[in-house]
Amino acid sequence: MKARESEKIEDLKSRIRLVVRTRWLLLCFIGIYCVVAASFFSLSRFGLFLSHSQAVTLVASLVAVITYNLALHRNIVTLSPYFRLLIPLQVILDLLLVTVLVHSSGGAASWFWPVYLIVTIEASFLIDTQREVWLIGAIGGIFYGLLLVLEYWSLVPNVPMPFVAAEIHHDPLYLLLSWLWVALLNAAVAVIGSYFMALVRRESDAVRESEERLASFLDSANDLIMSITTEGRFLYVNAAWKKTLGYGLEELEPLSFFDLVHPDSKEQFAMELCRAAAGDALSPFESVVVARGGRSIVVEGNLTCGNEEGEQSVIWGICRDITERKQAEEQLYRLAHHDTLTGLPNRILFLDRLQQAKALATRYHHQVAVLFLDLDRFKIINDTLGHPLGDKLLQKVAQRIAGCVREVDTVARIGGDEFTIVLVNIDSIDDVKRVSHKILKSLSVPFTVDTYELFITTSIGITLFPADGENIDTLVKKADIAMYHAKGEGRNNFQFYTPQMDENADKRLLLETSLRKALDHEEFRVYYQPKVDVATKSITAMEALLRWEHPQLGLISPAEFIPLAEETGLIIPIGEWVLRSACLQNREWLEQGVPRMRVAVNLSGFQFQQKNLLEMITSVLAETGLEAELLELEITESVIMQNPDFAVSVLNALKEIGIHISIDDFGTGYSSLAHLKRFSVNTLKIDKSFVRDVEVNSADAAITTAIIAMGNSLNLKVIAEGVETEGQFSFLSENRCDEVQGFLFSTPMPAAQVAGFLREHRGGAAGRETKAG
Question: Deepest of 54, 57, 333, 423, by most Cβ within 10 A of its Cβ?
Answer without folding.
Answer: 423
